[in-house]
Sequence to fold (315 residues):
Amino acid sequence: MNKDHLDIDNLTRGLLKKSLQKPASSDFDEVLMQKIIQAPMPVKQKSNGISTKKAWIFWIFTVVFFIVSLLLFTWILSGYLSEVNDGYKLTINYIFYGGLALFVPLVLYYFDALVQLMFIKKIQNVSIT
Amino acid sequence: MDSENIQKVLNGDVHAFRYFIEKYRDMAYSLAISIVKNSSVAEEVTQDAFLKAYDSLGKFEQRSKFSTWLYKIVTNEALKRLRKKEFKYNKEISELNTVDYSEINHSITELTEQEQKYYINKGLDQLLPNDSLVLKLFYLEEMNLKEIGEITGFSHTNIKTILHRARKRFYLVLKEELKHEIKSLL
Fold:
């Protein structure tokens, strides 16, 4: 920002600071307070969204569960595959990696939904209307 | 201090809401008048906005400042009153005119504080509702682009464009008004 621009900004700020206006009615505050007293009490509302802490715990458990299942599945499969012939082993491998290739996007989609649930819900709650 | 008073109100102390009225009344009214351009309507808008804020206080999750939340309510209420009534400029001022900022600054410092306030508000009154609203939020309330965006719903680029246009037009209007003032004195 150059000096001229800063000067204009400061001049505008100085002028606008003088523009603050007050309501003309002398009883503005009292009339408003009367309306407030007569209005129903505001009700404290609980958030409908999942708490961030709970969502993180859920998220971490999901990741751990996924990794453990994958390791377990590989371990079982490797034991089983050592007893069969090479042609059969190859077929099982194709099924396993093919399944994995389908499974990964599914898991990513699931994580995306989870992240949206955690964060978009928070953004929606900021809305005032 | 704001959050303490919010808790007090939510716990049943209605009179704690007076704190918000005293703290934010003038700015809320200034924003309302910059949109509706009428003092009595602006008072109604301000009262309605405070009532709405009181009513929805339980829903306010304090993720933004109370002032940002309240000014958004004020802006929405004022825009509702404005409805589809189109705002037109009273006078046509060519925006191609150049602005001599130092000349305006010099002319305005010659005036009394009361007169300065009168001419500044007269200048703001002749701007489009969105223009004077953004100018006040940026220079008077010293809000950043993000906060102004939360209140008005405008993008950062849009706010910068409005600021540039509004500031130039404000000075052009002010220059015209001050010229009349000098002429009337002579």
User: Anything to note?
Assistant: Residues 52 and 119 of chain A are 8 Å apart (CA to CA). Chain A touches chain B through 37 residues (CB under 8 Å). The mean pLDDT of chain A is 73.
